[in-house]
Structures are given as structure tokens and as C-alpha cells.
Fold this protein.
Amino acid sequence: MSLQSDQLTNSFLSMGPSTYQVSLKDLFASNRERLTKEIHRHVKGDNDSSKCEYVLYMVGGESTTRYDSDHEPIFRQESYFWYLTGVKEPDCQLILDFSLSSTTCWTVLLVPRLPAEYATIMGAIKTPAQWKTHYQVDEVRFTDEIDHILEQRMLGNQNGGAVGAEPKNRTLLRLKGPNSDSGILYEPPAVPSSLQDMVNDELLFPILAECRVIKSSAELALLRHATEVTSFGHGYVMRNIKPGMMEYQGESLFRHYCYFNFGSRLTGYTSICGCGPNAAILHYGHAGEPNARQTKSGEICLFDMGAEYFCYGSDVTCSFPINGKFSQDQLSIYSAVLSAQKAVYEMIKPGVSWVDCHKTAELEILKGLHSIGIVKTNDNISLEDLVELRLGAVFMPHGLGHFIGIDTHDVGGYLTGLNPPRSTKPGLKSLRTARVLKESMTLTVEPGCYFIDHLLNEALAEESPLRPYLDPKVVEKYRGFGGVRLEDVVVVTKDGCENFTLCPRTPKEVEAVMGGANWPPIRDEAPELRRLRLTDPTTAILPSPPSM
């Protein structure tokens, strides 16, 4: 990993020559400027608040060891801290003073005071001046000074005068709020008792979370890069996997490709590589089921994998026949899911409800299931009615997609006052957001169709209101099939959407790549998928690592 400087005015994070450069100025300094503007916008017009000077204090991720051992897992920065700093190292802290300007803030990075022996084991210790240059901040101090620094800034004068000199009407902002996916509360750091009456734990969380929802141009460029790397990694797996290989070998191909060629050391989440019946397990690949089944000819594979590059990750799912050719049954299910994706892309634009997009995806899948006899209708019940009866949730029990960015399931899905509440209905309750779409939101679009025994059994039970609309004999034929999921990363544009995902999607494309064809193609046979860079001549052709 390297950091390059351009005359000390802009620095870049990268993994070395020929890898993507992440500008600290364009990304993280811009994020701080945006937060500054949003803080001032939220307090503007409040006569009391407008006279108040705001200071933010937060801590980054801490270095840890594995249980009681001295083994140090690879550190990955806490996401909110990363959004504002781009600091890779653990045990750092941050102060942002918003009182000096309505557009910029004074940035103080606090770093650990490391012992001399650290240099022997971990490498040279950076000086405060080096930290300041590397991360493009205004000031660097040590974390063991934090209490004094906070008291000086909050109780002293604006320029850091002595405690008690010209006290200001200041508020200390801390981040505190629940993650709507995990339910875990982000807990604020402790502050000196002398500052307790100056603390505000309510203002910052919804503002900062919403900043992360609406992506900047620099964030979009980085997410596009991570998704294109991910897309070509999936294509590489399709080209090289064969019946009889282990599921984990497919995962290994992907990880090797993304790291070897593009420096993506980490993935954004645990890879899901399910074949045959395992393709119906939504989050397969965990420690108890570590992608350890041998693939068999004739099976469908569902591979959900995403590269991460400097903490911004992708999340892409491909489904394909292990032997390279779709059977008719596989093609029927695959085509239904692909139709759902296309229908959603026709809908996406600012002002559209994500819940409506989800229901549209369900309807397209039910149309496909109706065409092969699994789903039944009558003169009194249409497929649209069955969507409202929640039959779609039997086959797609998860939500259509989620926000994506620094976290795979990125924040902001259910912020108080900004979106409808979470539904309690099957399928809809699994939506990670119910919001109305806005320009520059980034989301995954991941419709799926699965044959999950316990859900099928519940729907076919004598007392089930859904039983009349399913044909048990045809359902039985598909038990053990697994499932199909197609997942892309998209950005909402001013009049529609752009699909960052460039992997093979149509059945023809999948079979061609699995047969050895070049990727990306010369011609886009499915422009309705909105893959605007698919045939861009600057897009890298799928490279083959020499070690393979």
C-alpha cells in the first residue's frame, strides 16, 4: 500500500503502480466539507442554535487481538471515521471544529503515541508532521492529550486559549444512534466531566448518516471501480470453474483475481458460493457452511462476492450452470429473475418508492413461475393480487436490495423522519430501506427466486391462504433446485439509473464466457440493463493472472 503526494496539496491512497488512486482531498476532505455545510444548514434559522459553535469528537476503530491470543486480525477502519478521514491506522481520534466557517472545518487528527520498539516490529513511526501531510489535516496531536485538548477547545477561546478565557456558547457533538440493519447502537466516546453539559448526542447521527447515503462524485468513481473489479472477477470464475470443483475453489479464484490484478486485499463480506441446493441458502458460506460442497454437473451455482478497495466495496451476485449450459428448468427461473431486474431498472429514478420497486420485482418473478405452472391464478385472483397476498415472499424472502458504500449494507435505510417505517409483512419486512429514491443514492438490485423447503411447506399447508395458488406437483419438481439471484450495483441518476456492474448477465452472455469467449463484449446485447461502460474501450479486458 502506498501514499503518493502531489506537491503536498493532494495525496492519494493506492496499492502501488497501476492500481486505482483514491484522492484524500477529493474524497475525504470533501466529505468533511459536506458535513460542515449540512451542520450549518440544519441549525440555520434557529436563533439560539445559530449563535452556537459546534465541535465534533469521535474515535476510530481500535486495534484488537483474536480472543486471548496476540494474533492481530487485519485492521479495517470504522466506517464513519473512514468517511471523514481515510485514516488506515487503528486507535486514532478526530476533532472537527465547525465554528470558523460555514463551508470548511478545522480538522484535528489525534494519533497514538507509540513506543520506540514499535518501529522494530511494525515499521517506522510517523512524526506528527508526516501524519498531517499524509492525511491532509490541519493539525495532529496525540490521543493521550485528548481531555486537555477538548477542554481547551470547548472552554477556552476560539483560537485555543487557556481554559476559562472568553468562554463560548459551544456544543460538543458526538455520534450516537442505531444501525437499522444490525440493531446495534453506535456508542459515543467518553468526555471529561467538565464538558458533560455541553454534549449533544442527537444532532450529528442523522446528518452524518444521510451524508453517507447521497454519494459524492469521488465516492461514485470509487464504487464504480470496485464494482468493475468485482464484475471481471465474477467473469473470471465463470470462465474457469468446472463440474467437480469445490465451491471454495470458486471463491478462491475470485479473491485471487481481484487481489492479484487490482490490489483488492479484502472482500466487503463473507463470500457466498452455493451450488445445487446450497444456492437456496441466502447467506451460505459462513463458518458452519464454509463453501465446502463439491459441485456436480447439471447444478445451478449462485456466487455472491464483492471486492473492497480502501473500504468502499461492491456486492454482486451471479448465477450460472456449472457445466456452462442452462437446462430448460434453469433457464425458466433465470429468465424470470432477469426480467425482474430489467423491470426495476425501468422504474428507478428520483421520486420512486423502493417498496414499489420490490413489488414490481416480485410480480415479474411470479409471472415466470406462472408460465411454468408453479403459480396458479383464477378469474378472481390476478398475479398483482398475489403480490399483495405476499405470495412473492415465498420465493423471494429477502428485500430487493440495500444501500451500498463503505459498508455492504450501508447506513441510512431507516432514519427517523426521512422514510416510511419498516413493514411487518413477509418479504417487505426484510427490505433494508423503504425510502423514496434520490439522485446519487447507490443501491443493489438483487431479485431472486429460491426453493426453500420450510417456506414451501408453510405455503402449501392446509390452513395456508396461499395454498390454492400453488401447484404442489410442480413445486415438488423444483425442490432441491436451489435458487437464482442476480445482483447489481446501481446509482440513481437525475432521470434514471446507471448500472456499475459489468459481468455477464443474459443467458447468451453467461454461456459464451463459460465457453471461453472474451469479456467485456464488443456489442451490448442488453442495453436495458443500463451497463453504460460495458463496451467502453477504456474498460479493461478480462486479464488472466499468470499464476493460473
Notes: The chain has a mean pLDDT of 93.
